[in-house]
Structures are given as structure tokens and as C-alpha cells.
Amino acid sequence: MSLPLVRLPSLDLIKGFVAVGRQMSITQAADELCLTQSAVSKQIRTLEEALGVPLFHRGYRSLAFTEHGELLFKVADACVQQLQSVVGLMVVQRPRPVTVTMSTSVAALWMLPRLGDFLAAHPDVDVRFAATNTVLEVGGDVDLAIRYCAPRHAPIGAIRLFGETIAPVAHPAIDPRCLDTREALAAVNLLEFDYPGRPWLHWADWLAARGWSTASAKAVLRFNQYEQMVQAALAGQGVALGRLELLQAPLRAGQLRLLEGPRVAPFDSGQAFWLIGAGDDVPDPVRRVADWILHCAQEVRTAAWAPLP
Description:
Radius of gyration: 30 Å
Structural class: alpha/beta
Number of strands: 11
Helix content: 25-40%
């Protein structure tokens, strides 16, 4: 006789039983179900208790169906296979996201403020940012990469996005001529990106290049993440050496300003940002993300720094 639905074991227990029966292995079934071995073992015990009969003969590192287990498996396996086929046809298969890797500073300061525009124009494309200061190579799950380096170090096939212009920036509340004299410098804090190998972003080198090797600020506050230093500048904590291409949004909004005076003219660091992976044969979603990045870069390249607040 057939049982009422309310008395049937749950589908989770049947799935666990079928997975074990297909593999004849608790370990392999657990891997397939993304569960622990103990969780799958508990499912089998719970099902046996609910039915009141053993389903497996358990030996040393071996399993075998009991008579009841073999009967249940033939029916349950066929039903689960049918469910897998039908549900597989019904579930909308979303394409995997387009993964773009870049440094944390590029992600936080340049990419994220623009992301809303892309999502509005391309709601059908999922984008994943792999923001890390560890270099991830294009390939596998990584579709595109934004790299920062001198032109001579750019990989073959890299597309130049924009260069890097450096100039002191600060909150509008800070005196815009605070770097005019030694006395003015002694009254302000300097915000330092404490990263080796980039002298163009270090205050000691910047001051020395302007003949102020012995000049001292009120204090030098050091940060190991560039975006953290920018947050301090936005909070009015001091003056930072701004990478102007990455700071367009706060500069345009008046949250930061360029300083004034003869010593603070913007200069080219000689470094640049590059897009990697935007070849001719990439899938359409990757091409659309790459084209959007290139469009954003074009806006940066055509920006004039003089009219900024």
C-alpha cells in the first residue's frame, strides 16, 4: 500500500541515500553533496530509523546494499535522476561573472565609483572584482586585469589606460598654500603611502626634489594602503600626494582640492595603468566590460586638471 505524503522521508534523506548508493562510499557522497562525512552518515542512520530496516551492510571500508536497500535504491535513483533532468531544464543557467583583477586602490578609488553606470547599461552582465595587491594572472577564472607599471614593464598586448599625475591634495578646510614656506609646512601633517620602491609617492623624495631636504612637517602619518591614506585626507587629517587619475571623483566633488603655489605643480610619475586580457577573441560579456573600462579611461585622459576645485 502507498503511504501518505506526510509520512514519506524527506528529500534530503533520499538524496543522501542515493548519493551513497551511487558511489558506495560515504566520503565520495559527502564530496558530491558538499557535506561532511558525519552529516551523510547521520542522514543514512536517520533514514534507516524512519523506515525501521537497515539499508546497508557495513564492512571494513566497504558498503553493500541490504535487500531493502537495493529495492529502495532502484526506485529512488530513478526518481532522483528524473528530478535532476527536469529541474536542470527549468533552472536558468546564468553565465559566470566576468572577473576583473586590480589593486585595492584602483578598485576603491577608480572602479567602484563608476560601477553603477555599467550596471545600469548592462544589467545582464555580472562583474566580479578581484581586488588584491597580489598579482593574479589572466586565465582560468580571471578574465581581465588592470596593472600598474612603467611602460617598459607592460606585458605584450597590454592596452594603456592612462598615466599617473602626482600632486599634493588636501581637504578644502586646509590652507591651500600650506606648502609655500617652511613655516607653513611645519604646521601641517603629511600623509604618506608607506610602500617601498615608489619614491614618487614619498614625501621625503618630493621635498628633496624641491630643495627642502631639511624641511619638517608637523607630523608624518604613514599608511600601508593607498585608499586608507585617501580616507585620511578626505577627513582633513593632512596633505597627501594624490594620484590625480584615481582621485577624479573626490576632486570633482570638491571633497579634495589641489594645493596652490609654485612648489605644487602636478608632475608625471612615469608610471601608467594598463588593461590586460582585452584581445579580439574574448567572449561578448568580457568584451563589454573591457570596452566600458576603456571608455572610463578615455574620460580620465581627456580631463584637464587646472579647472579642478
